[in-house]
Write a structure and sequence with these properties.
single chain; about 90 residues; alpha+beta; Alpha-Beta Plaits; about 15% strand; globular; binds iron/sulfur cluster; binds FE3-S4 cluster
Length: about 90
Amino acid sequence: TYVINEPCIATKDTSCVEVCPVDCIHPAPDEPGFEEHDQLYIDPEECIDCDACVEACPVDAITPEDMVPPEWQRFIAINAGYYQRT
Ligand code: SF4
Ligand code: F3S
């Protein structure tokens, strides 16, 4: 899967959504708990690792999961956690 990292927060360009062939990138819900992570999220179950979103993002927020830089490691769980909540 791919992961959306810190530069997306408050930027939310959404170019990634337009290029994703499986439509697996979704915005944060407008509800408590997401104030600090007002970004978009990639569904790890749906992402087909096509790489299209990486080039589309103007702030280079997206990386493959195994290439997330050390300072952004927490975003792996943040992305996955969004889809695991009930
Ligand atoms: Fe969508 Fe491809 Fe990006 Fe996965 S890698 S989120 S399938 S555009
Ligand atoms: Fe965020 Fe970049 Fe997509 S800023 S919404 S990951 S194009």
